[in-house]
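Hello,

Following up on my earlier ticket. Below are the two sequence lines again, exactly as submitted.
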Amino acid sequence: MSTPLLAIPVVVPIFGAALSILVGFRRELQRLVTIAALSVTVVVSIIVLIRVDEHGHLVANSGGWSPPLGIALVVDRFAAIMLVVSTVVLLIVAIYAIGQAGEERERVSFHPLYLVLAAGVSASFVTGDLFNLFVAFEMMLAASYVLITLGGRPDQVHAGMTYVVISLVASTLFITSLALLYAATGTVNMADLAVRLADIDPALRHGFSIMLLIVFGIKAGLFPLFFWLPDSYPTAPGPVTAIFAGLLTKVGVYAIIRTQTLMFPPGDGGANWGDDLLLWVAAATMIVGVIGAIAQDDMKRILAFHIISQIGYMIMGLGLFTVVGVAAAVFYVIHHIVVKTALFLVAGLVDHRAGSSRLSSVGGLVRSAPIIAALFAVPALSLAGLPPFSGFLAKFALVDAGLSQGLSAIVAVALAVGLFTLFSMTKIWTGVFWGSAETEPERAPQTTDRFGGPPLMVLATLSLVAISIGFSIWAGPIHELSQRAAEDLLNPAGYIRAILGEAAP
Amino acid sequence: MSLALAAVTAILFAAGTWLLLQRRLTRIIIGIGLLGHGANLLLVTSGGRAGSPPVIDGSAGSPAEYSDPLPQALALTAIVITFGVTAFLLALGYRSWQINRDDKVEDDLEDRIVARLNELDGPEGPIDDGDPDTNEFEVEEDAQP
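Thanks for your patience. The regenerated structure is below:
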């Protein structure tokens, strides 16, 4: 089914960014533009999700060129789910950013950049063209480079440097892979690539599979390509870190799931070592991430290491390559976007309230700011996978999928890592909310706020926590939707036919 | 001709990778630039042999005689993106020089703090780790008796 609706989540934020620069002299107008543009995007994304769930795939050909010549925009159930979750999170974090007073967010460029970032994230989900995915990544990354260094403080410049250089290396590898793919197949349309890759030498195909895994693995923070992530994310201002942690790595995971299921499906002529590779990578990512977190003293850095270990779970679901496994991975991705963003927003609240996010400089917040403590407890327990929260359901689905294939080793790793996650969350709890501060915080604490922080910040965090609770209340329908999305993903013929039409073999 | 292009691409990639592994920021930026050029050249080469300009005006015979326009369009896009990001990187490098008066890339501060925790717990007890600006590897070497 064809519809121009798909372009809106990309076009509206881009035009919003342009308008935001034009009204740059008035901060209130900029805020209004951001909220309006993101609200439109959320509404359109929800309409797209409903229609995709009814009709299967939605396709739009930009410029009217029929595929595989033009750039095709394609949304299947997985892309639509990601689109809805990411736009909702972007809107909520925008509200949080407006509520937080701070030098960075008072700059003219914050709002336009945030909208360009939103457009880049949406474009990554709706595109059906591998080169266009590169452009979407660059859009998202270029905005993120400036957002991470906005303010130009020494630590930001230092961390931003690592981030920019690593991302640029990944982008260069991406162009290299695209050039080699084009030389081998003569196309960059993903559906067309899927058809033509089936005809080339399996060894070459494995090479491409690994190259794309490395490219997206750097963005997603897979073992052994994760090292840049904990150094660079925590230095950005609170809301920016939350978006980076919650969304940007997950765009990488999305790209891995999309390319591996569509272009390199398992079982076609000895691709099995590749599947095992994903499981090994998943196990290593989980273990290294969780062990790295134990040594840290800063709340944001502990959470940043946990992004890595959680990415391992998603790749584990993909590595199983069954409908239940991939469905669990899809559920895990959306649960994790919401929960991780909420945790970083809480870290921002702690930072605001206590003047520091170091465990050694903060203490006793459970008495002085009980609302922040409650807002932390729910997503933290969810991240660790305790019932009845959404993390438990996501982990349960994953463990169930692993056991049904008799892969008890990876399941044991997943459960052990869950235990260590709980340990880290307990460490934050005892360090920040119980006990007392051992050293002086970097900035003066703000103790005057009635709700533990500025009302808009608390409200935004609260709504994310409410969404994560909603995931466990409506887990049945959401899991069924993930199941349908996984069936689509593991049946690439439907995706290919939706784009190439009758021309598909 | 393609062999020459392939050789140039290989040299650009090799030189770029070597420069990228240096500790001086200016070298890293030049390395990124070279890597980008290498990748763009590879993109152009992926279009196959050179041919007539891809404008259909009847001057060339069969479609096989035209050169493939798509990789050229892709390379143009990639060049523009590389250009913009390199400009940003240079600005960042300048800001870094403004702050430090030095373009050496240091290890992450938190990593150094965590590395130091390890020493405090060791049987040797607290040690004098000298200049705090040195990197963690040098500090660990000092810790060895």
